[in-house]
Design a protein that fits this description.
The complex is a heterodimer of chains A (about 90) and B (about 450). In chain A, about 35% of the residues lie in helices and about 5% in strands. Chain A is mainly alpha-helical and about 90 residues long. The chains are: A mainly alpha (about 90), B alpha/beta (about 450).
């Protein structure tokens, strides 16, 4: 059973502010979805390896070389929150 | 007109591209005003491209991109208010490759916000309407791509993207061909991620030959996407006869929840292939029942991490910075910028990855995924292709979709999620009509066997 408190707690971990109306709506809907997720528990997966990718992938390494990249000016074109060539953000501490 | 023929005539100087595009954009705007399929129409940029157009395989061919694919200097929103006004400083690999062959970008197509939807009804901008009956949905999440591929008169290649069926679904509902390649066959560099282990860029068009031509251009390794495949790209444009192929009909894909009229339509088109010498046999994919919850767990978990980077800094939606701390700022921006379905999936995905639940949900889903892949691998030992309906129904009406609960909504993906989880290639191709609406035949092949899908598509065309 999904409670309002659980929805609020997970939303806060996900950094999404919810209105009271949204909390009520999601609380009502999530029980059915999570019950459905629980059906996976029926499957015997003992000894089965998880597939993080659909095809086998391997780690690829490259040299740590200096290459051309975006200029400071270009990297700042999509924000208004900038100062003296830096991104400006909300107070962290 | 087919893209190859158009490019050929344009290269030979038989088509004046300036004149062509004046008329083409008139038509595009007319279609858009009727069916709402573009977030951005890039007329000015297209004419600028014409000034220095490479005389390649797509010389002068109009191409649209789902708005989840980054285009340099051209707004890319992912269908979300969170990225309104975002102008990427680079082109995605697929955009680069298409431009280099002379393809002309005509616009960015409508989609469910970040691809989160099966009907194109979770749209932050315009909601596309089905060009055959505008009281019906287009299918999602590449809905705008389905509309324009169907409604346009003249050449057009629509680049879409599928995570759990977002190419097959609109292709089926709008009555066009849609190819979802093997995971990694087409590089994802420059695609706004939904779920990294599932996302695949693909092609929608009226003509199979447009798909094979485009695939020969966009497929192949790119070092900027290390999950892209390095296997050699075959020549997709030389179709082979299908007489030696065997097709499997998975019994689980023709049962409960599938409209029998849709199944009949699909069986009839498989018969047409049988008439051309294809062998048909019944197979079973025993894990099918678990594909839906496994898919949604994987997709929601991955999207909840991928969308974490959208926090109102550096690009996209911004709010005034006040005295609150960064957590309050991020939480407010995300409350304003994300639509309901994005919030729903981010929260469910976060839940599935929380300590105490991770093994039960996320890891278990990844293990079930292994069993689903094994199911397909076993089937492909005895058949070349699998055939099923693409969608269990014809395109529903908007009022029918409105009544669905989130869970009922997710269950509409019943036929597309398993092949998407397994990363195998699939082609949805029109195979008839039910109540005047198109039905899609879904062909699936083993990893990297796109050729067989194209051959079968050509045989049916």
């Amino acid at each position: 059973m999904v409670t309002k408190e659980l929805v609020k707690k997970v939303a806060s971990i996900a950094r999404i502010e919810l209105s009271e109306e949204e909390v009520n709506k999601f609380t009502k809907e999530f029980t059915a979805v999570i019950d459905w997720f629980n059906e996976l528990g029926e499957v015997d997966t003992k000894g089965v390896k998880p597939s993080y990718h659909p095809l086998k992938t391997e780690n690829v390494f490259r040299e740590d070389e200096v290459k051309e990249c975006l200029s400071q000016e270009e990297s700042l074109i999509n924000t208004n929150h900038k100062e003296k060539g830096f991104f400006k953000g909300p107070k962290a501490v | 007109m087919k893209a190859e023929e158009f490019a050929h005539q344009a290269r030979a100087g038989k088509i004046n591209l300036e004149d062509f595009y004046v008329e083409y954009f008139k038509q595009l705007r007319k279609i858009d005003s009727k069916y709402d399929c573009f977030i951005t129409i890039s007329e000015e940029e297209a004419f600028k491209q014409l000034e220095k157009l490479p005389r390649g395989k797509l010389y002068g061919v109009p191409v649209s991109f789902k708005d989840a694919i980054c285009t340099r200097g051209l707004q890319t929103t992912g269908g979300s208010k969170m990225l309104e006004g975002y102008k990427p400083t680079f082109d995605a690999s697929v955009v680069e490759r298409i431009k280099a062959e002379g393809g002309v970008i005509v616009g960015k197509t409508c989609m469910d916000e970040f691809g989160l939807g099966g009907f194109s009804t979770n749209c932050a901008y315009k909601t596309p309407k089905n060009p055959i009956d505008d009281s019906r949905v287009t299918g999602g999440s590449s809905g705008g791509a389905g509309v324009i591929a169907r409604a346009i008169k003249g050449p057009h290649i629509a680049i879409g993207e599928s995570t759990g069926g977002s190419i097959s679904c609109p292709a089926s509902f709008c009555g066009v061909n849609g190819l979802t390649p093997t995971y990694g066959r087409v590089p994802r560099h420059g695609l706004l991620d939904y779920a990294c282990s599932l996302d695949k860029i693909g092609v929608l068009s009226k003509h199979i030959s447009d798909i094979s031509l485009t695939m020969s251009i966009i497929a192949g390794f790119d070092k900027r996407d290390l999950t892209s495949r390095s296997e050699e790209v075959p020549n997709y444009s030389m179709p082979q006869p299908v007489k030696d192929l065997t097709i499997g009909l998975p019994k689980e894909y023709f049962g409960e929840g599938i409209d029998p009229k849709v199944s009949d339509c699909v069986i009839k088109s498989v018969k047409k292939l049988e008439d051309q010498g294809v062998k048909v046999k019944k197979v079973s994919l025993s894990m099918s029942k678990y594909a839906l919850p496994a898919y949604y767990l994987v997709a929601m978990s991955e999207v909840s991490t991928n969308l974490a980077k959208l926090c109102g800094m550096r690009y996209g939606l911004e709010l005034p910075i006040r005295k609150d701390g960064f957590n309050e700022y991020f939480s407010k921006v995300r409350a304003v910028g994300f639509g309901t379905e994005a919030k729903r999936r981010i929260i469910l995905g976060t839940y599935a990855r929380m300590s105490g639940y991770r093994s039960k949900y996320y890891l278990q889903a990844m293990k079930v995924r292994t069993l689903i892949i094994n199911d397909f691998k076993k089937a492909f030992k005895s058949v070349d292709l699998l055939a099923a309906p693409s969608m269990p129904v014809i395109a529903p009406r908007f009022d029918e979709v409105d009544k669905l609960t989130p869970l009922e909504n997710y269950k509409m993906d019943i036929l597309t999620v398993a092949p998407n989880l397994a990363g195998i290639p699939m082609l949805s191709t029109p195979c008839g009509e039910v109540s005047g609406m198109p039905v899609g035949l879904h062909l699936m092949a083993d990893h990297l066997q796109e050729r067989k899908l194209i051959d079968a598509g050509v045989a049916l065309e």
